[in-house]
Specification:
binds phosphoric acid mono(formamide)ester; alpha/beta; Rossmann fold; 5-stranded parallel β-sheet; 316 residues; 12 helices
């Protein structure tokens, strides 16, 4: 594997999930693969889980790791072509990415969307420039439109905890006070549409995701109908795709509570990628109760990242 930016970069999804679960059982079996190899993790935005889990995964494989918070510690990057750099930017992404490639065998990049210009975000300009100019294999640590390491960890979690061959999985929109990207729900939808699950998306009117990511999913504005008899409920806020980045306000009653779950899906496990705003996006009673698998899910980020890095190391 030379690029991990979406489910479309994976030849065999069930095999990758199985590999992650094998690595969970035997984390240090492939340390020879990473010996004298360097992973550079480049962050243009904050992170806790992606940063730590990917670093841990690389160390399990025997790799050296460099972490660069380029937004805080690097030179101000110019991302546009054909501009005279007489403003605040100091280094062009062409040189910056090229130089990072000289120091790295694999690069991971996190670059969030601006949520202002949909065409620019959905063309993945920044992530694609890293891929083009660094000339080494690249892993997405969350880009403008997708978060594939998160989605792989989510699928690993479902595979591990499911109690029936084809579980019902529901992605539900949740309230928030800020405009959040669509990367996590886009990516989750895209992976679930490729997995052997019965998949439903529910959100208030106005929060339709881009249909490129939801082909094959059932979609409803009726949260109660969607939640009925769910085995897994994936909670996430996102801002509107049209008008792009909008937050309409209201819909506070979309937050999951135990009362809602007791009535509609008493046996369901509740997932969230984290970070989560308690009692705004998801109730404390669920997060602190037996339904929540969010910590287990975050733990699986290590094995997802390790499976991807292992496949990349095998092709170096
Ligand atoms: N879920 C996730 O990607 O968490 P971080 O933003 O903390 O990395």
């Amino acid at each position: 594997m030379k690029l991990f930016s979406s489910v479309n970069d994976v030849k065999d999804v069930p095999a990758l999930v199985a590999e992650a679960l094998q690595l969970k059982q035997n984390p240090y079996a492939h340390q020879h693969l990473g010996k004298n190899k360097t992973l550079s993790l480049v962050f243009l935005n904050p992170s806790l889980r992606t940063r730590m889990s990917t670093q841990k995964a690389a160390m399990n494989l025997g790799m050296n790791v460099i972490v660069l918070n380029i937004d805080k510690e690097g030179w101000a990057l110019e991302l546009r072509d054909n501009v005279i750099m007489n403003g605040t930017t100091v280094e062009h992404i062409r040189e910056a990415a090229g130089v990072m490639g000289e120091y790295s065998d694999i690069i991971g990049v996190r670059s969030f969307p601006g949520l202002k210009d949909r065409e620019e975000d959905y063309s993945e300009t920044i992530f694609n420039k890293f891929v083009e100019f660094c000339k080494v294999p690249v892993v997405s640590l969350e880009s403008a439109t997708r978060h594939p390491l998160q989605s792989l960890a989510d699928l690993v979690t479902i595979e591990e905890l499911k109690t029936k061959a084809r579980p019902k999985v529901v992605l539900t929109w949740a309230p928030h006070i800020k405009a959040l990207p669509q990367a996590v729900p886009n990516s989750f939808a895209e992976w679930m549409c490729r997995a052997d699950v019965d998949f439903t998306i529910t959100h208030p009117a106005g929060y339709e995701l881009c249909t490129d990511f939801t082909k094959g999913a059932a979609i409803t504005h009726n949260q109660g109908e969607a939640l009925k008899d769910a085995d897994f409920v994936y909670v996430k806020n996102w801002s509107a795709y049209e008008p792009y980045g909008a937050v309409t306000g209201g819909n506070e009653d979309w937050m999951l509570t135990n009362a809602k779950m007791d009535t509609l899906a008493p046996a369901a496990k509740v997932m969230h990628c984290l970070p989560v705003r308690r009692d705004l996006e998801l109730s404390s009673e669920i997060l602190d109760g037996p339904r929540s698998v969010v910590i287990h899910e975050a733990g699986n980020r290590v094995w997802a990242a390790q499976a991807v890095l292992k496949q990349m190391l095998e092709t170096l």
